[in-house]
Specification:
disordered N terminus, three-stranded antiparallel β-sheet, 2 domains, Jelly Rolls, alpha+beta, 16% strand, 25% helix, globular, six-stranded antiparallel β-sheet
């Protein structure tokens, strides 16, 4: 009996359809205990080292936080981060919300130190000038490298706000749309529709809250971080084919992003990924 209950919990935890439905309904979902303990610990160790080696300082504005440390372009920093975009407990949910042609928009860390105030509520697709509400164009995730609580800066969300016809006024928290703090254990992952109103919380505790912001966008949307220019090609050549695709070294719908009728993997990485343009697929090559 105990074994069947445990199996049921595992099935629910990684039930892509259930998590996708929750995102459609509420704008977000939490995948509890999604990430292996050794990976989370390795990520934490790498972030501590990078903060020292790169001499990272807190931000200079209210959005990035005056007591918040962010490290950008993590795929170019340490091989451990190559496991993040393709993680089996997260990527299938993101692909279900967007589609398998989605891209890595950005991969960064966010460490909220004690004394930090709440980040202004915002949406992650705020610069995309389409009428709201619209279909999902951005799907982002926050990996809990430490426990997230209401007191230490756990991400605040406004459930259902991805269906609103407007977006937050920067720096103004509407009293009629009070956010709720997401609480989750270390190793859990919050995944949300990019139209959801959200923001980092105030850290009223005595400990740092650390998260990994693993962000994705639809394949036809420009990425937040320029992966093709920000990651040296020698590094990309060692990436798995799927990770290279997620970073933009493939094409969307067999057309968008090609280089002289080659995929970027063919033209830049020397990989034969079998790319044929959508037009060649529609009209078979003539013979005779």
């Amino acid at each position: 009996m105990v074994e069947s209950v445990v199996c049921g919990v595992e099935k629910m935890r990684f039930d892509v359809a259930a998590h996708t439905a929750r995102i459609e309904r509420d704008g977000y979902t939490i995948v509890e205990d999604a990430i292996e303990a050794d990976l989370i610990d390795a990520i934490g160790d790498a972030l501590e080292r990078l903060e020292t080696d790169l001499r990272i300082l807190p931000g200079y504005n209210a959005f990035e936080g005056h007591r918040t440390v962010r490290i950008y372009n993590l795929l170019a920093r340490d091989p451990v981060f190559e496991r993040v975009p393709v993680h089996a407990a997260v990527l299938p949910i993101v692909e279900s919300v967007l589609d398998p042609g989605c891209l890595v928009s950005s991969l960064s860390s966010i460490a909220i130190d004690p004394g930090e105030t709440a980040q202004p509520l915002h949406t992650d697709d705020t610069l995309i000038g389409l009428p709201r509400p619209h279909g999902p164009l951005v799907c982002n995730s926050m990996w809990a490298v430490t426990d997230f609580t209401a007191d230490n800066g756990g991400t605040r969300v406004v459930p259902g706000s991805h269906r609103f016809a407007d977006k937050p006024v920067y720096g103004v928290d509407s009293s009629s749309n009070d956010p709720v703090a997401v609480e989750m254990r270390k190793g859990s992952v919050l995944i949300w529709n990019g139209s959801l109103w959200h923001g980092g919380g105030a850290n009223r505790s005595r400990a740092r809250r650390v998260g990994i912001a693993m962000n994705y966008c639809a394949g036809f949307i420009r990425q937040q971080e320029n992966q093709q220019l920000g990651i040296p090609l020698d590094m990309v050549r060692r990436f798995s084919p799927r990770l290279a695709e997620l970073c933009g070294f493939g094409t969307y719908k067999h057309l968008m992003g090609h280089i002289d009728k080659q995929s970027p993997a063919q033209a830049l990485l020397g990989r034969d990924d079998g790319f044929r343009s959508v037009w060649d697929r529609i009209e078979p090559a003539r013979t005779g």
